[in-house]
Amino acid sequence: MIQYNESNMLFHLQGPTYSYLLGVKNDVLMQYYWGGRLPSDAVEGLLELRGEAASFDTAHSRHPLVVPTQEKGYFGQRALCVVNPEGDDVLSLRYQGYRILSGKKPLCGLPASYVENETEADTLEIDLKDELTGVAVTLSFTVFHAYDVLARSMQVKNEGDKPFKLTDVQSAMRLPADKYEIIHLKGAWARERQARRVALGEGTYAIKSRRGASGHENNPFMAIVKPHTTEDQGDVYAMTHVYSGSFSAGVDVGIDNEPTMMIGMCSDVFNWDMAPGAVFQSPEALFVYAPDGLNGLSHRMHPFVRQRICRGKWRDLPRPILVNNWEATYFGFNYDKLIAIAKRGAEIGCELFVLDDGWFGKRDSDNCSLGDWVVNEGKLDGGIKRIAESINELAMQFGLWFEPEMVSPDSDLYRAHPDWCLHVDGRDRTECRNQLILDMSRKEVQDYIIEIVSGVLRSAPISYVKWDMNRNMAEGFSCMLPAQQRMETQHRYMLGLYRVLEEITSAFPEVLFESCSGGGGRFDCGMLYYMPQTWTSDDTDARERTRIQYGTSLIYPCSAMGAHVSAVPNHQTGRIASFQTRCDVAMGGNFGFELDLSKQTEEDLATAKKAVEMVKKLRTVMQQGEYTRLLNPFENEGRAAWQFTRENTVIVCVYVDHQQPNPQPHRVKLAGLDPEAVYTDAENGISASGAALMNLGLIMPSYGGDFATKVYVFEKK
Ligand code: GLA
What we know:
Elements: E1 2-5, E2 10-14, E3 18-25, E4 28-36, H1 43-50, E5 80-83, E6 94-102, E7 121-130, E8 135-144, E9 150-158, E10 164-174, E11 181-186, E12 194-199, E13 204-209, E14 218-225, E15 236-242, E16 247-253, E17 259-264, E18 272-274, E19 279-281, E20 284-290, H2 293-308, E21 322-324, H3 326-329, H4 335-348, E22 352-355, H5 383-393, E23 397-402, E24 406-407, H6 412-416, E25 436-437, H7 443-459, E26 464-467, H8 489-507, E27 512-515, H9 525-530, E28 533-535, H10 542-553, E29 561-566, H11 579-586, E30 590-594, H12 602-624, E31 626-631, E32 640-646, E33 649-656, E34 667-668, E35 678-681, E36 686-689, H13 690-695, E37 698-699, E38 708-716
Parallel strand pairs: 21-22, 21-30, 22-23, 23-26, 26-27, 27-28, 28-29, 29-30
Antiparallel strand pairs: 1-2, 2-3, 3-4, 5-10, 6-7, 7-8, 8-9, 9-19, 9-20, 10-17, 10-18, 11-12, 11-14, 13-16, 14-15, 15-20, 16-17, 24-25, 31-32, 32-33, 33-38, 34-37, 35-36, 35-38
Helix pairs in contact: 7-8, 10-11, 11-12
Bound molecules: alpha-D-galactopyranose (GLA).
């Protein structure tokens, strides 16, 4: 609900459990509150508590500006920076008016949260303007009635008659003064989204990516929590970006001790020419306040991402159990080898066979052919059509890997269009994995990709696409843009990519798309808007995955995370975990296999078959149920546990990193059960009340080797 009180010019945005309060004072837009939901009539009292109602000093040093800029003695972090025609960067945004609309408009050319009908949400638009330069801003805030997420974005317009330059665009929210800690997701290739928690001092803490992708190193997410906040209790203020390019996210503690958190464009690699009449649309930022700990944050974010970021036919459908040939064969496959793996996959009940890298051009290693999306008949006799049809005959769907944004210097595409890649004339074109990046800001490049990928998809029964992107931008500039606009390249690239994704995904609505970027290097709400699942990491080691999946689950739902059983010794770590453990951990995401099934023992295949049956039976619980973290592997000597709950079914998976002799018993307490009801796990012979399972809990396996897991499936009576 959004209420406007005309007499004191206050806007009260109320979500199911949060409130956000804005007000206009002397034509300046201020944020007075963000936190637990306030009753509608509590607003006046709150203003008095803040002390804002009484006084207004013309200097902004202590004012909670909604769009902090360079003006009137404000010295904190800015949300909007411009360079005016005269060369200064002063910007005095003054209130012009507001509109309250039903529903939510799409963002032009950008991914964003959405509504399915207008009654689901209300949107507040507020206009601000700097009279001297004509810099005009429209802020947009959407309150969803059924989701505890506030969506926010900003449009900047040049209503003046001279050009200016936009050099930073952020969405900023203030927190009440208090002691806080910061949680963010640090990582690297094959080590994505490791949860980090550090104290918030009295300065600025920032993370960013200037890679041209959200990246492996930092995820566009930050949570500010109280020092005592745990999984189950305590305040959490969190934000994420519905964008897949470079970003910055940070928190700044001002002189009044009120932290401001901000997420937006990465100003290192962004500025934008604003000619008279130009409009710039910022990406959307999502903000969540949870009073009930990190699980409270996840319980708010997961359904929202699943239902109001992800789109399309596959959004609500059970995801197929797949077998992917990458770690099974790498580039060394032919038709017979693939069919042998697929046959075993079909025997154990897999539903989709995915042919990964190496099927096109003359690609037998990673040093050539990206861009030449024409099947290598020498390797795959009969082409994609034959293999796809043969897979269909095994009663499985067929899926295919692409890396369309890339070009290999050794490719026909590069030989024909050497200027189609991002580069700077006169400098080396830095290769990474022997490849360069196509200039997606160019329309002809976008059109080429749409045409060539669509052509392949039309040529055979292809039901799934893995859309990969394996390197970041080094000389990330378009030679087509004039010098004063070169710094626009990265954002123009993203707009071009989003256009391509919109066209292809809407032309092939039946196809399930999974995004990938060297594993989880572009795991963000921007990609999830086009493709409802992402390959979580190139690290398929079960132990490492307990950590990667833990961090990822802070904001992203399990239905978005690809998780596959791979071979041992694991290809990334050399570690050996049992087949059962590998299956149990992979059940924490979209389950699949990524190993040569034709070479597994009968015993392991039997385990695999049982796991497939279990996933088929329980995947609605795993993919659409509520996911709760019970034990954090970063803290409990590697022990981890998680729970899925949907209707009367409760699935619990526990993981023990290393066994000790004569151990102390470690217990895991279940969450969110009905204390009075009886829960029965017939297979493990357990029947107990919800109260007992929540207060005493289950005992963790204390024997059975390192990396041991156990899965419990309870039904509520
Ligand atoms: C990336 C992906 C892998 C695989 C390879 C193929 O690394 O993350 O899953 O597809 O590319 O080259």
